[in-house]
C-alpha cells in the first residue's frame, strides 16, 4: 500500500519578508519562519529595534536581515522590493490602531490608520507579487488582519473599516494571483498581548468586555499566531487561498 506523505512545514531556502518585523506579531512571525529554515528580512522604521531583532534571531541560529524602511512611503518601498531577488513569503503585518468613538473620529486619525493598514499593506503586497511574478517564484502572501475584519465593535470604526478592506483585497488578490502559484490569505487574531495592545487592558471595563467575548478564557499570546504563520507559509496549506484563518478564541463564531 502506498501511503500519502504529509506535506512539510520546513521552509529551507525560502525567502520571507515581514513588515513591522521588529516587535510584537511581526517579530513573532519572523522567529517562527526562521525556526523552520526561512531566511527572514525584517522591515521596520526604527533602526535600533529592527537591528536588535535581527541580531537576536541570528544569535538563536536563524538567518535574519534588518531593513530600515517606512512602508507608508509606497514608492520607496516598491523601489526597494523591486531591486531585491523575489521573496517567497510576505507577512504583511505593519499596522496601527487609534480607538475612539465614531462621532469623535478626526480626519488625521482616519487618514493615518488607513495609510498604514490599507494603503501601505496593499502596495507592498503589490510590489512583492510583481517581483514574484517576474522571477517565476511561487509562494504565500499572508495579510495580518483581525477578527475585527469580520465583526464590528465600539470605538473601532476606523480599525474595523481597514481590516474589512484588507479582507476584501485579499480575496481579490487570490483570484488574480492563483494562476502564478501565489496564495493569499489572512490571519485574524483576537486581542493578543503585545506592546501595542497592553495599554488597552489597563482599562478594567475594556478588559472585562474582551474577556466576556473570548470563549477560551484568556487573551491571545504571540505564540498562538506563530504556528498559523508557518502553516500558511508552508506546503501544508497548499490548497488554501482567499481564506481567513480565524484565531479568535471563539469570539466571532459563538457570539
Q: Write down the Rg.
A: 18 Å
Succession of helices and strands: EHEHEHEHEHEHHEH
> Which descriptor suits the 3D outline?
globular
What's the end-to-end separation, in Å? 46 Å
Overall pLDDT confidence:
97
Provide the structure class.
alpha/beta
How many β-strands, per DSSP?
7
The percent range for helix content is 40-55%
* Poorly predicted tracts of residues: none
Looking across the biggest beta sheet, what order are the strands in? 3-2-1-4-5-6-7
Total helices: the number is 8
How would a crystallographer describe the biggest sheet?
A: 7 strands, parallel
Strand content: 15-25%
Q: How would you describe what is shown here?
A:
It is a single chain. Strand 2 (39-44), helix 2 and strand 3 (63-68) form a beta-alpha-beta unit. By secondary structure, this protein is an alpha/beta fold. Helix 1 (24-35) crosses helix 7 and helix 3 packs parallel to helix 4. The model has no long low-confidence stretch (mean pLDDT 97). Strands 3-2-1-4-5-6-7 form a seven-stranded parallel beta sheet, with helices on both faces. The chain is built from eight helices and seven strands; from the N terminus they run βαβαβαβαβαβααβα.
